[in-house]
Amino acid sequence: MISWILLAIFVLIVIRAPIFVALGAPAMAYLWLRGIPIELAPQRMLGTVNESILLAVPMFLLAGALMNRYGATARIFDFAQAVIGHVRGGLGYVTVLASMVFSAMSGSAAADAVGVGKMTVAAMRKRGYDPNFAAAVTLSSATLAPVIPPSIIMIIYGATANVSIGKMFLGGVFPGLLMAASLMAMVGWLSARRGYGRGEPFAWSRVFRTFWRAGLVMLTPVLVIGGIFSGVLTPTEASAIAVVYVIFLGIVYRKLNFGEFYRNLIQTGTAVGALMMVVAVSGLDAWVIAREQVPVMLAQNVSEVVSSPTLVFIAILLVVLVLGLFMDATPVILMLVPATTPLVTAFGIDPLHLGVLFCIVCVLGLITPPVGVALYGVALVSRLPMERIFVASLPFFIMLLVLVAVMVAFPSIITWLPGKWG
Protein backbone atom coordinates (compact mmCIF):
# COMPACT_ATOMS: atom_id res chain seq x y z
CA MET A 1 0.00 0.00 0.00
CA ILE A 2 2.83 2.38 0.77
CA SER A 3 3.82 2.45 -2.92
CA TRP A 4 0.33 3.72 -3.79
CA ILE A 5 0.56 6.35 -1.07
CA LEU A 6 3.90 7.61 -2.39
CA LEU A 7 2.60 7.56 -5.96
CA ALA A 8 -0.46 9.58 -4.92
CA ILE A 9 1.77 12.17 -3.25
CA PHE A 10 3.92 12.47 -6.37
CA VAL A 11 0.90 12.78 -8.71
CA LEU A 12 -0.71 15.46 -6.53
CA ILE A 13 2.54 17.43 -6.50
CA VAL A 14 2.89 17.17 -10.28
CA ILE A 15 -0.65 18.45 -10.88
CA ARG A 16 0.15 21.41 -8.60
CA ALA A 17 -2.13 20.54 -5.68
CA PRO A 18 -1.33 22.56 -2.54
CA ILE A 19 1.60 20.91 -0.76
CA PHE A 20 -0.31 20.28 2.47
CA VAL A 21 -3.05 18.55 0.42
CA ALA A 22 -0.51 16.51 -1.57
CA LEU A 23 1.12 15.32 1.65
CA GLY A 24 -1.97 15.05 3.82
CA ALA A 25 -4.68 13.53 1.62
CA PRO A 26 -2.85 10.22 0.91
CA ALA A 27 -1.93 9.89 4.59
CA MET A 28 -5.55 10.42 5.64
CA ALA A 29 -6.63 7.85 3.02
CA TYR A 30 -4.13 5.42 4.53
CA LEU A 31 -5.65 5.85 8.00
CA TRP A 32 -9.15 5.25 6.63
CA LEU A 33 -8.17 2.18 4.57
CA ARG A 34 -6.26 0.64 7.47
CA GLY A 35 -9.11 1.26 9.89
CA ILE A 36 -6.96 3.51 12.09
CA PRO A 37 -8.87 6.16 14.09
CA ILE A 38 -8.75 9.53 12.34
CA GLU A 39 -8.12 11.14 15.73
CA LEU A 40 -4.53 10.00 15.38
CA ALA A 41 -3.90 12.59 12.64
CA PRO A 42 -4.17 15.77 14.76
CA GLN A 43 -2.12 14.12 17.52
CA ARG A 44 0.76 13.40 15.13
CA MET A 45 0.48 16.78 13.46
CA LEU A 46 0.57 18.73 16.73
CA GLY A 47 3.43 16.59 18.01
CA THR A 48 5.48 17.45 14.93
CA VAL A 49 5.26 21.22 15.36
CA ASN A 50 5.67 21.07 19.16
CA GLU A 51 9.39 21.87 18.85
CA SER A 52 10.77 25.00 20.47
CA ILE A 53 13.48 25.35 17.82
CA LEU A 54 10.78 25.95 15.19
CA LEU A 55 9.97 29.25 16.94
CA ALA A 56 13.08 30.65 15.26
CA VAL A 57 11.49 30.31 11.81
CA PRO A 58 8.80 33.03 12.10
CA MET A 59 11.24 35.34 13.89
CA PHE A 60 13.87 35.18 11.14
CA LEU A 61 11.19 35.57 8.46
CA LEU A 62 9.83 38.65 10.24
CA ALA A 63 13.33 40.10 10.67
CA GLY A 64 14.00 39.72 6.94
CA ALA A 65 10.68 41.33 6.00
CA LEU A 66 11.30 44.28 8.33
CA MET A 67 14.83 44.70 6.96
CA ASN A 68 13.35 45.23 3.51
CA ARG A 69 10.68 47.55 4.87
CA TYR A 70 13.12 49.80 6.73
CA GLY A 71 15.49 50.27 3.79
CA ALA A 72 18.27 48.12 5.25
CA THR A 73 18.73 46.29 1.95
CA ALA A 74 19.35 49.59 0.13
CA ARG A 75 22.04 50.54 2.64
CA ILE A 76 23.78 47.20 2.17
CA PHE A 77 23.58 47.60 -1.61
CA ASP A 78 25.07 51.11 -1.50
CA PHE A 79 27.98 49.93 0.65
CA ALA A 80 28.66 46.93 -1.60
CA GLN A 81 28.59 49.18 -4.65
CA ALA A 82 31.09 51.57 -3.05
CA VAL A 83 33.46 48.69 -2.25
CA ILE A 84 33.44 46.70 -5.47
CA GLY A 85 31.20 48.45 -8.00
CA HIS A 86 34.14 50.10 -9.79
CA VAL A 87 35.48 46.92 -11.46
CA ARG A 88 34.28 45.49 -14.79
CA GLY A 89 30.88 43.88 -14.25
CA GLY A 90 30.88 45.56 -10.86
CA LEU A 91 27.13 45.46 -10.31
CA GLY A 92 27.24 41.68 -10.67
CA TYR A 93 29.78 41.53 -7.85
CA VAL A 94 27.69 43.98 -5.86
CA THR A 95 24.67 41.68 -6.20
CA VAL A 96 26.59 38.71 -4.81
CA LEU A 97 28.12 40.73 -1.96
CA ALA A 98 24.79 42.36 -1.02
CA SER A 99 23.07 38.97 -1.05
CA MET A 100 25.82 37.50 1.13
CA VAL A 101 25.38 40.24 3.76
CA PHE A 102 21.59 40.09 3.61
CA SER A 103 21.76 36.27 3.88
CA ALA A 104 23.33 36.61 7.31
CA MET A 105 20.18 38.39 8.47
CA SER A 106 17.20 36.77 6.74
CA GLY A 107 17.98 33.05 6.29
CA SER A 108 15.44 32.91 3.45
CA ALA A 109 16.18 32.61 -0.26
CA ALA A 110 12.79 34.04 -1.18
CA ALA A 111 13.35 37.12 1.01
CA ASP A 112 16.83 37.56 -0.48
CA ALA A 113 15.59 37.18 -4.06
CA VAL A 114 12.84 39.76 -3.66
CA GLY A 115 14.57 42.17 -1.27
CA VAL A 116 17.93 42.40 -3.04
CA GLY A 117 16.46 41.73 -6.48
CA LYS A 118 14.27 44.83 -6.46
CA MET A 119 17.36 47.03 -6.51
CA THR A 120 19.97 44.96 -8.31
CA VAL A 121 17.95 44.09 -11.41
CA ALA A 122 16.81 47.70 -11.88
CA ALA A 123 20.33 49.07 -11.31
CA MET A 124 21.94 46.61 -13.72
CA ARG A 125 19.37 47.32 -16.41
CA LYS A 126 19.99 51.04 -16.02
CA ARG A 127 23.74 50.47 -16.55
CA GLY A 128 23.19 48.53 -19.78
CA TYR A 129 23.50 44.96 -18.52
CA ASP A 130 21.51 42.20 -20.21
CA PRO A 131 18.28 41.90 -18.16
CA ASN A 132 18.53 38.10 -18.28
CA PHE A 133 22.07 38.25 -16.86
CA ALA A 134 20.94 40.66 -14.15
CA ALA A 135 18.12 38.35 -13.11
CA ALA A 136 20.37 35.26 -13.29
CA VAL A 137 23.00 36.78 -10.98
CA THR A 138 20.28 37.84 -8.53
CA LEU A 139 18.69 34.37 -8.59
CA SER A 140 21.99 32.53 -8.16
CA SER A 141 23.02 34.82 -5.31
CA ALA A 142 19.79 33.99 -3.48
CA THR A 143 21.17 30.48 -2.93
CA LEU A 144 23.48 31.96 -0.29
CA ALA A 145 20.63 32.83 2.10
CA PRO A 146 19.81 29.28 3.26
CA VAL A 147 23.52 28.32 3.48
CA ILE A 148 25.17 31.25 5.27
CA PRO A 149 23.84 31.20 8.86
CA PRO A 150 21.26 31.77 10.15
CA SER A 151 19.39 29.40 7.83
CA ILE A 152 15.71 28.57 8.12
CA ILE A 153 15.96 25.25 6.29
CA MET A 154 18.94 24.23 8.44
CA ILE A 155 16.75 24.82 11.49
CA ILE A 156 14.06 22.57 10.02
CA TYR A 157 16.63 19.93 9.00
CA GLY A 158 18.31 19.95 12.41
CA ALA A 159 14.98 19.61 14.20
CA THR A 160 13.95 16.73 11.91
CA ALA A 161 17.25 14.83 11.86
CA ASN A 162 18.22 15.58 15.48
CA VAL A 163 21.44 17.31 14.40
CA SER A 164 22.82 20.28 16.34
CA ILE A 165 21.53 23.53 14.82
CA GLY A 166 24.65 25.37 15.99
CA LYS A 167 26.92 22.87 14.26
CA MET A 168 24.78 23.05 11.11
CA PHE A 169 25.23 26.83 11.10
CA LEU A 170 28.98 26.50 11.59
CA GLY A 171 29.12 23.90 8.84
CA GLY A 172 27.48 26.32 6.42
CA VAL A 173 30.05 29.11 6.86
CA PHE A 174 32.85 27.87 4.57
CA PRO A 175 30.47 26.44 1.92
CA GLY A 176 28.63 29.78 1.85
CA LEU A 177 31.84 31.75 1.42
CA LEU A 178 33.05 29.30 -1.24
CA MET A 179 29.76 29.62 -3.12
CA ALA A 180 29.96 33.44 -2.97
CA ALA A 181 33.54 33.43 -4.28
CA SER A 182 32.59 31.06 -7.11
CA LEU A 183 29.58 33.18 -8.08
CA MET A 184 31.84 36.24 -8.25
CA ALA A 185 34.34 34.33 -10.41
CA MET A 186 31.56 33.39 -12.84
CA VAL A 187 30.32 37.00 -12.86
CA GLY A 188 33.84 38.18 -13.72
CA TRP A 189 34.25 35.65 -16.52
CA LEU A 190 30.86 36.39 -18.11
CA SER A 191 31.34 40.16 -17.73
CA ALA A 192 34.72 40.03 -19.48
CA ARG A 193 33.32 37.94 -22.34
CA ARG A 194 30.35 40.26 -22.83
CA GLY A 195 32.25 43.51 -22.36
CA TYR A 196 30.21 44.93 -19.52
CA GLY A 197 31.40 48.32 -18.30
CA ARG A 198 32.75 49.60 -15.02
CA GLY A 199 30.92 51.57 -12.35
CA GLU A 200 31.88 54.80 -10.66
CA PRO A 201 35.59 55.20 -9.78
CA PHE A 202 36.61 53.86 -6.38
CA ALA A 203 36.65 56.49 -3.61
CA TRP A 204 37.47 55.92 0.04
CA SER A 205 35.16 58.77 1.00
CA ARG A 206 32.20 56.94 -0.53
CA VAL A 207 33.19 53.68 1.16
CA PHE A 208 33.33 55.36 4.58
CA ARG A 209 30.09 57.27 3.97
CA THR A 210 28.12 54.19 2.92
CA PHE A 211 29.67 52.10 5.69
CA TRP A 212 28.53 54.69 8.22
CA ARG A 213 24.99 54.46 6.84
CA ALA A 214 25.03 50.63 6.78
CA GLY A 215 27.02 50.02 9.96
CA LEU A 216 24.06 49.43 12.26
CA VAL A 217 22.45 47.15 9.69
CA MET A 218 25.58 45.02 9.34
CA LEU A 219 25.75 44.68 13.10
CA THR A 220 22.67 42.44 12.89
CA PRO A 221 24.52 39.28 11.74
CA VAL A 222 27.23 39.98 14.31
CA LEU A 223 24.61 39.89 17.08
CA VAL A 224 22.78 36.87 15.67
CA ILE A 225 25.64 34.68 14.49
CA GLY A 226 28.04 35.80 17.21
CA GLY A 227 25.45 35.06 19.88
CA ILE A 228 24.80 31.58 18.54
CA PHE A 229 28.43 30.62 17.91
CA SER A 230 29.58 31.92 21.30
CA GLY A 231 26.93 29.84 23.05
CA VAL A 232 25.34 32.90 24.66
CA LEU A 233 22.13 32.53 22.61
CA THR A 234 20.21 29.58 21.25
CA PRO A 235 18.98 29.93 17.63
CA THR A 236 15.47 30.64 18.97
CA GLU A 237 16.70 33.37 21.30
CA ALA A 238 18.91 34.83 18.57
CA SER A 239 15.93 35.05 16.20
CA ALA A 240 13.95 37.02 18.79
CA ILE A 241 16.94 39.32 19.40
CA ALA A 242 17.14 39.88 15.63
CA VAL A 243 13.51 41.05 15.48
CA VAL A 244 13.96 43.39 18.46
CA TYR A 245 17.13 44.84 16.95
CA VAL A 246 15.49 45.37 13.54
CA ILE A 247 12.61 47.20 15.23
CA PHE A 248 15.24 49.36 16.93
CA LEU A 249 16.70 50.10 13.48
CA GLY A 250 13.25 51.13 12.32
CA ILE A 251 13.13 53.67 15.15
CA VAL A 252 16.65 54.94 14.46
CA TYR A 253 15.99 55.33 10.73
CA ARG A 254 12.54 56.84 11.43
CA LYS A 255 10.88 54.20 9.29
CA LEU A 256 8.83 52.52 12.02
CA ASN A 257 5.18 52.79 11.05
CA PHE A 258 2.75 50.79 13.15
CA GLY A 259 0.36 50.30 10.24
CA GLU A 260 3.10 48.81 8.07
CA PHE A 261 4.47 46.84 11.03
CA TYR A 262 1.04 45.30 11.56
CA ARG A 263 0.84 44.37 7.86
CA ASN A 264 4.27 42.75 8.09
CA LEU A 265 3.11 40.75 11.09
CA ILE A 266 0.05 39.56 9.19
CA GLN A 267 2.08 38.65 6.08
CA THR A 268 4.68 36.79 8.13
CA GLY A 269 1.99 35.05 10.14
CA THR A 270 0.28 33.93 6.94
CA ALA A 271 3.53 32.59 5.50
CA VAL A 272 4.42 30.82 8.74
CA GLY A 273 0.93 29.37 9.03
CA ALA A 274 1.25 27.81 5.58
CA LEU A 275 4.75 26.55 6.39
CA MET A 276 3.75 25.03 9.73
CA MET A 277 0.76 23.35 8.10
CA VAL A 278 3.16 21.59 5.73
CA VAL A 279 5.47 20.70 8.64
CA ALA A 280 2.55 19.34 10.67
CA VAL A 281 1.16 17.23 7.83
CA SER A 282 4.61 15.86 7.07
CA GLY A 283 4.69 14.49 10.62
CA LEU A 284 1.70 12.33 9.78
CA ASP A 285 3.44 11.16 6.60
CA ALA A 286 6.56 10.31 8.60
CA TRP A 287 4.44 8.20 10.96
CA VAL A 288 2.87 6.34 8.01
CA ILE A 289 6.30 5.73 6.47
CA ALA A 290 7.68 4.46 9.78
CA ARG A 291 4.63 2.22 10.40
CA GLU A 292 5.08 0.60 7.01
CA GLN A 293 8.78 0.06 7.84
CA VAL A 294 9.89 1.88 4.69
CA PRO A 295 13.19 3.08 6.21
CA VAL A 296 14.10 -0.47 7.27
CA MET A 297 13.26 -1.92 3.86
CA LEU A 298 15.09 0.90 2.11
CA ALA A 299 18.21 0.31 4.20
CA GLN A 300 18.11 -3.42 3.50
CA ASN A 301 17.61 -3.00 -0.25
CA VAL A 302 20.33 -0.39 -0.61
CA SER A 303 22.72 -2.51 1.45
CA GLU A 304 22.20 -5.39 -0.99
CA VAL A 305 22.97 -3.21 -4.03
CA VAL A 306 25.86 -1.00 -2.86
CA SER A 307 28.41 -1.22 -0.09
CA SER A 308 30.08 2.19 -0.45
CA PRO A 309 28.99 4.99 1.92
CA THR A 310 30.03 7.51 -0.75
CA LEU A 311 27.64 6.00 -3.30
CA VAL A 312 24.81 6.05 -0.76
CA PHE A 313 25.69 9.67 0.05
CA ILE A 314 25.56 10.63 -3.63
CA ALA A 315 22.32 8.69 -4.19
CA ILE A 316 20.60 10.59 -1.37
CA LEU A 317 21.71 13.94 -2.81
CA LEU A 318 20.50 12.94 -6.29
CA VAL A 319 17.08 12.10 -4.88
CA VAL A 320 17.02 15.48 -3.12
CA LEU A 321 17.94 17.24 -6.37
CA VAL A 322 15.16 15.50 -8.31
CA LEU A 323 12.54 16.12 -5.62
CA GLY A 324 13.66 19.74 -5.45
CA LEU A 325 12.45 20.23 -9.02
CA PHE A 326 8.88 19.64 -7.85
CA MET A 327 8.82 20.52 -4.15
CA ASP A 328 9.93 23.28 -1.82
CA ALA A 329 12.87 22.56 0.49
CA THR A 330 10.77 22.05 3.61
CA PRO A 331 8.63 19.11 2.41
CA VAL A 332 11.73 17.50 0.84
CA ILE A 333 13.47 17.60 4.21
CA LEU A 334 10.43 16.44 6.15
CA MET A 335 9.68 13.54 3.80
CA LEU A 336 13.17 12.30 3.02
CA VAL A 337 15.09 12.68 6.28
CA PRO A 338 13.07 10.11 8.30
CA ALA A 339 13.34 7.61 5.43
CA THR A 340 17.10 7.99 4.99
CA THR A 341 18.16 8.15 8.66
CA PRO A 342 18.63 4.33 8.90
CA LEU A 343 20.85 4.46 5.80
CA VAL A 344 22.94 7.23 7.32
CA THR A 345 23.37 5.18 10.50
CA ALA A 346 23.98 1.85 8.75
CA PHE A 347 26.69 3.20 6.44
CA GLY A 348 28.36 5.40 9.05
CA ILE A 349 27.73 8.64 7.15
CA ASP A 350 28.52 11.84 9.04
CA PRO A 351 25.05 13.37 9.65
CA LEU A 352 26.53 16.88 9.80
CA HIS A 353 28.33 16.52 6.45
CA LEU A 354 25.21 15.09 4.84
CA GLY A 355 22.93 17.63 6.53
CA VAL A 356 24.71 20.71 5.21
CA LEU A 357 24.97 19.27 1.68
CA PHE A 358 21.35 18.12 1.88
CA CYS A 359 20.34 21.74 2.57
CA ILE A 360 22.61 23.10 -0.19
CA VAL A 361 21.09 20.74 -2.77
CA CYS A 362 17.62 21.69 -1.52
CA VAL A 363 18.61 25.30 -2.17
CA LEU A 364 19.34 24.45 -5.81
CA GLY A 365 15.73 23.36 -6.09
CA LEU A 366 14.65 26.87 -5.04
CA ILE A 367 16.12 28.31 -8.27
CA THR A 368 14.83 25.66 -10.69
CA PRO A 369 11.47 25.34 -12.42
CA PRO A 370 8.71 24.37 -12.00
CA VAL A 371 8.45 25.01 -8.23
CA GLY A 372 11.43 27.26 -7.40
CA VAL A 373 10.17 29.92 -4.97
CA ALA A 374 13.27 32.08 -5.43
CA LEU A 375 12.84 31.78 -9.21
CA TYR A 376 9.27 33.03 -8.86
CA GLY A 377 10.46 35.94 -6.72
CA VAL A 378 13.11 37.07 -9.21
CA ALA A 379 10.67 36.67 -12.11
CA LEU A 380 8.24 38.88 -10.21
CA VAL A 381 10.68 41.73 -9.53
CA SER A 382 12.41 41.52 -12.94
CA ARG A 383 9.21 41.03 -14.95
CA LEU A 384 10.89 38.37 -17.06
CA PRO A 385 9.67 34.84 -17.91
CA MET A 386 10.98 32.18 -15.53
CA GLU A 387 12.29 30.08 -18.41
CA ARG A 388 14.57 32.86 -19.68
CA ILE A 389 15.90 33.55 -16.18
CA PHE A 390 16.69 29.89 -15.53
CA VAL A 391 18.43 29.43 -18.90
CA ALA A 392 20.55 32.51 -18.17
CA SER A 393 21.41 31.12 -14.72
CA LEU A 394 22.56 27.71 -16.03
CA PRO A 395 26.31 28.56 -15.89
CA PHE A 396 25.90 29.46 -12.21
CA PHE A 397 23.75 26.38 -11.56
CA ILE A 398 26.30 24.02 -13.12
CA MET A 399 29.11 25.65 -11.17
CA LEU A 400 27.18 25.16 -7.91
CA LEU A 401 26.69 21.48 -8.74
CA VAL A 402 30.45 21.16 -9.24
CA LEU A 403 30.97 22.76 -5.83
CA VAL A 404 28.63 20.20 -4.28
CA ALA A 405 30.78 17.42 -5.78
CA VAL A 406 33.90 19.06 -4.35
CA MET A 407 32.33 19.23 -0.89
CA VAL A 408 31.29 15.57 -1.10
CA ALA A 409 34.91 14.67 -1.88
CA PHE A 410 36.37 16.97 0.80
CA PRO A 411 34.16 16.77 3.92
CA SER A 412 36.51 18.99 5.94
CA ILE A 413 35.16 22.03 4.07
CA ILE A 414 32.01 21.48 6.12
CA THR A 415 33.17 19.62 9.21
CA TRP A 416 36.36 21.48 10.17
CA LEU A 417 34.78 24.58 11.68
CA PRO A 418 32.11 22.71 13.73
CA GLY A 419 34.87 20.37 14.96
CA LYS A 420 36.99 23.33 15.98
CA TRP A 421 34.33 25.52 17.57
CA GLY A 422 31.19 23.40 17.83
UniProtKB/TrEMBL annotation:
Similarity field: Belongs to the TRAP transporter large permease family.
UniProt KW Transmembrane helix keyword: yes
Domain of life per record: Bacteria
Domain TRAP C4-dicarboxylate transport system permease DctM subunit: start-end pairs: 7-412
Membrane spanning stretches: 6-33, 53-71, 91-111, 132-157, 169-190, 211-232, 238-256, 268-290, 310-327, 332-349, 355-378, 390-417
Protein name: TRAP transporter large permease protein
Organism of provenance: Paenirhodobacter populi
Gene Ontology CC annotation, any one: plasma membrane
Compartments it resides in: Cell inner membrane
